């Protein structure tokens, strides 16, 4: 068990000492450390058991502080900054030397984000360095959206969890960058592609494979529960009775008739994508904690936040 609380000053002091702690953001909880101290950054990788080739996002308090750590901000990206920062948007930008290479896994680009969470913004305002933070889950497991989620997996390894309540967005930030004059989406996330396109016009969505995680980095198998998960159409009748007694299902709006009710979770009874995103990881964890042999999940409509949710479900699935 870690110490859990809302003491921002304590969190700032620990970070100043080079410690690694957990912090809330509006997307998911982060495993945070001073991005300018390579030893601290190494500690983050070690606690998370994350390979060193998978780089970290740095978090900043405001747009003005960006210039200290990035060389330039392309003109085409600026309207997105105005619209979505602070918020669940991460930009890949050319880094200044101040950012240690270990943070970016040797890439000349650094991932930067201004989180829209009051406690995290307060913390960022108290320290004079960027906070490096991947999601606060062991590598490959489901991202945490409450302080308790962090405590269950990493509580023994960190001195403090800053508790900012349940995350309001629930899926990670949308990662964007530029290749020549094109805007590229590298990870679908908390800002819908439609909302980005309404500001900058058409963008390119790049699928990233595990064979080339630095292009830029996102490994295929991710966000996975312990129990094997597969995607199904809940209206299909092909699941046998044996399957059903030892299976759970994550549905979008409606219960699936075939399954025992206690093995089911509904992401949003009203079909609201934001509510579904907010519930996604917590409900995956709830099903993962039941004595089940298999978890099934239904895909959402492929639009808005549904795309980020489906991306997470596909990455969580074993087939
Ligand atoms: O919402 C979020 O983005 C959360 C909160 C805590 O801010 N953070 C998060 O971090 O999801 P993480 O480390 O779990 O995922 C960041 C992704 C990784 O897939 C990483 O490979 C990619 O961003 N990334 C980070 N820096 C990069 C870089 N310099 N070039 C390419 N990809 C990068
Ligand atoms: Mg992650």
If you had to describe this structure to a student in words, what would you say it looks like?
The chain is α/β, with parallel strands linked by helices and 319 residues long. It is built from ten helices and 15 strands. The chain has helices spanning 8-16, 38-48, 78-84, 101-104, 118-126, 147-154, 193-200, 241-245, 273-288, 305-316, and strands at 3-5, 21-23, 30-34, 57-59, 89-94, 109-113, 131-132, 160-162, 174-179, 182-187, 204-205, 229-231, 247-251, 264-266, 294-297. The strands form three sheets. The protein has a nine-stranded mixed sheet with strand order 2-3-7-4-6-5-9-10-11, with helices on both faces. Strands 12-15-13-14 form a four-stranded parallel sheet. 45% of the residues are buried. Magnesium ion (MG) is lined by residues 134-135, 143.
């Amino acid at each position: 068990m870690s110490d859990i609380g809302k003491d921002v000053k304590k969190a700032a002091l620990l970070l100043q000492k080079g410690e690694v702690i957990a912090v809330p953001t509006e997307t998911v909880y982060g495993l945070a450390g001073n991005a300018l101290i390579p030893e601290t950054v190494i500690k983050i990788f070690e606690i998370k058991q994350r390979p060193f080739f998978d780089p970290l996002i740095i978090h900043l308090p405001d747009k003005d502080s960006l210039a200290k750590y990035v060389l330039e901000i392309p003109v085409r990206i600026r309207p997105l900054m105005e619209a979505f920062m602070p918020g669940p948007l991460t930009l890949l930008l050319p880094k200044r030397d101040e950012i240690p290479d270990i943070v970016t896994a040797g890439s000349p680009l650094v991932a930067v984000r201004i989180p829209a969470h009051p406690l995290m913004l307060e913390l960022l305002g108290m320290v004079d360095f960027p906070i490096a933070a991947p999601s606060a889950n062991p590598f490959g497991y489901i991202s945490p959206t409450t302080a308790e989620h962090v405590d269950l997996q990493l509580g023994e390894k960190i001195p403090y969890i800053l508790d900012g309540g349940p995350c309001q967005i629930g899926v990670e930030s949308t990662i964007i960058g530029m290749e020549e004059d094109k805007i590229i989406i590298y990870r679908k996330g908390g800002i819908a592609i439609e909302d980005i396109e309404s500001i900058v016009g058409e963008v390119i969505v790049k699928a990233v494979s595990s064979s080339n995680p630095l292009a830029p980095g996102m490994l295929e198998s991710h966000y996975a529960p312990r129990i094997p998960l597969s995607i199904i159409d809940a209206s299909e009748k092909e699941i046998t009775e044996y399957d059903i007694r030892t299976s759970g299902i994550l549905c979008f709006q409606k219960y699936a008739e075939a399954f025992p009710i206690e093995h089911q979770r509904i992401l949003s009874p009203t079909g609201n994508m934001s509510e579904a995103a907010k519930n996604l990881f917590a409900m995956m964890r709830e099903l993962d904690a039941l004595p089940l042999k298999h978890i099934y999940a239904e895909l959402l409509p492929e639009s808005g936040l549904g795309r980020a949710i489906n991306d997470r479900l596909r990455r969580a699935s074993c087939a």
